[in-house]
Amino acid sequence: MWGRRAGALLRVRGLWPAGVLGRRPLSCSAASLAGNSSPQCWNCGGPGSHMRGDGFFCPQCHALQPPDPTRDYFSLLDCNRAFRVDTAKLQTRYQELQRLVHPDFFSQRSQTEKDFSEKHSTLVNDAYKTLLAPLSRGLYLLKLHGVEIPEGTDYEMDRQFLMEIMEINEKLAEAQSEAAMKEIESIVRA
């Protein structure tokens, strides 16, 4: 009973991939459609040029594809790559993705798809946890920009400093005028 109700609700909201039990694809922005970079579908051998759409499923055979190891957490969760994120939007996207790739929905599928589902679900969980907390989000942003924080760093002591640096960098990126740049410079000097 629950399965039919949940399926109907998710079909109405368009949260299931095309062709999987007749459901429509998950809607997401072009930034998060980078998806799978494998040249062919592991199941049907379909050409990579057809690997588009939501990036999780083959459009020909609808088999779940392996996670894209080059995809960052921001594009996966459809967020701007910035320190400030809309946590409500983040949570909504997390829930949409879990409804799409959670292992509970793949119990009747091949072992390969079950394995891919577990990997996708773990990746979505890691991305959500990382981007939800400001400190881990900041550290992840730094990592994306090639700055690694050494193991054993006292994060609590450095947390306020890190937050200030991230906020200043955002203000610099958003500065529209020379006056705004001068204001930021005076804050840094102080």
UniProtKB/TrEMBL annotation:
This is Iron-sulfur cluster co-chaperone protein HscB-like. One of its GO terms (cellular component) is mitochondrion. Residues 1-22 form the signal peptide. Residues 157-189 form the Co-chaperone HscB C-terminal oligomerisation domain. The keyword Transcription does not apply. Residues 39-65 form the HscB tetracysteine metal binding motif domain. It comes from Mustela putorius furo. The keyword Metal-binding does not apply. Transmembrane segments: none annotated. It holds the Pfam family HSCB_C. The gene is LOC123391649.
